[in-house]
Amino acid sequence: MGMKATSVKGRCFNLEDYDTTYKSFNWSEAEKSFSWSETGLVNMAYEAIDRHAESDKRNKVALYFSDKDRNEQYTFQDMKDYSNKAGNVLKKAVGVEKGDRVFIFMPRSPELYFVLLGAIKLGAVVGPLFEAFMEAAVRDRLEDSEAKVLVTTSELLGRVPVNELPHLKHVVIVGSGVKEEGLYIDFYKRMETASEHLEIEWVDREDGLVLHYTSGSTGKPKGVFHVHNAMVQHYQTAKWVLDLKDDDVYWCTADPGWVTGTFYGAFAPWLVGATNVIRGSRFSPEDWYQTIENYGVTVWYSAPTAFRMLMGAGDGLVTKFDLRSLQHILSVGEPLNPEVVRWGKKVFDLRIHDTWWMTETGAQVICNYPSMEIKPGSMGKPIPSVQAAIVDDQGEELPPYHMGNLAIKKGWPSMMRAIWNNEEKYESYFLPNDWYVSGDSAYKDEDGYFWFQGRVDDVIMTAGERVGPFEVESKLVEFPAVAEAGVIGKPDPVRGEIIKAFIALREGYEASDELKEEIRLFVKEGLAAHAAPREIEFRETLPKTRSGKIMRRVLKAWELDLPTGDLSTMED
Ligand code: WTA
Asked: Where are the transmembrane segments (predicted)?
């Protein structure tokens, strides 16, 4: 049932011998290639860009960027210069200092990456936000992080409630016709005169790097805090898992608003000095295949929903493009169906390598390596030297084939270091014997492969994006007609899950299709398009506990025609 690893078009693998490396690897080996092993101080952006600009990789292409309007390329030297300039804009015009939170709310563009790297060079903590976020989502994140600076575009500015954000000191606008007044700074105007020389802020490896907000099953999104040290694991997994080499052209399809797009769409490939493709348009099968063909992409990292959509577009389409450059394909974010792996083998003659990790783990943890046998449907094995296990709620390890909590032993390099302003939440991830509990359930087989079973909580994974039901419910009840709302993930063949909302209306409101549409639009415009329920069902009442909490598991059981389980806490 496995799929043997065969050398792909002469490719040799960075991780040849998993078992030996697993036992012998020491993270200090990864650190040797960084300057901080000598100085003790570090800056991720220096290691990702400047280090290569100062080497014989100076004129190597670091970034191929394109979208429907632009088609550009930047060498490592260019990236160094532009990120220095952007850093100077943030430093001089805006006064960004070490530790300040700088949020970035814009569609993918070269400027986004200049700002991202420039802010990191100043020692700032960066927070990339999805361009699809609407006002409430933007406000929650800027408020919680007490962001000092936001970098955005003229088009998105309308979604930034500047007057409600007392900590926000400046808004840097990337766009044309920007008027510098109040908080507003004109990015392009400032870039013109900004110096290419920037004094890098050398920080401690435990100093802040990134804040990525992510959804849980309760409460508002939480700020997952990562430090510079995470780059050790980004660097090493870029080798072992992405298998990047000097002549690779790498394309990660994720947006930096999602942790994959930041860590594996920018940091990891650049830390190993790879050529990185960033494509800024909306998904379309033709566009994606064309992108692979145009750039001669060799290593491609995407997500199951995208693969399923490509699969749905038909195998005939694949033959219209020259995709022979492809050598290595990877997937992340949701369960990768065996069917998709088989499809990949058929149309690309390549295996699709599943990888498992989370915003909180900060980097890939359980993976299928190019050199090893793949069991379609399995997420693979832990990266060398990191311990993963299936444990019960007390942290006792369970034997093979027993389903339980997927857990990782505390101490891997890229582990989150805090939940912003929420020590209690952070602590709640760990058991007393130092297992980090992921919230996923899984089992392990006798060969040490991990098999994903589902989420333990109510978190919804729709098209690879993590949506907290609470956030959607909170938005729904702001709508005048909605008295109560319960939100679940409903299985969907393409998107993994879709968001379904059960709604009880207030007195005097009539259920109708128009009303459903209005409600959907309200969430879409208030929160984010991907958070808007695709299905809405009106109910007289919703199942609740005696304390008034909506019982999502009962809604889910109803939806899926499953037994509802223990209802002893349900109100009459
Ligand atoms: C899910 C994404 C099955 C899982 C990098 C996890 C997966 C959550 C896989 C994290 C996979 C991620 N197979 N499920 N290979 N990879 N997940 O933080 O439920 O957006 O807990 O990070 O995605 O989502 P997040």
From this structure: none
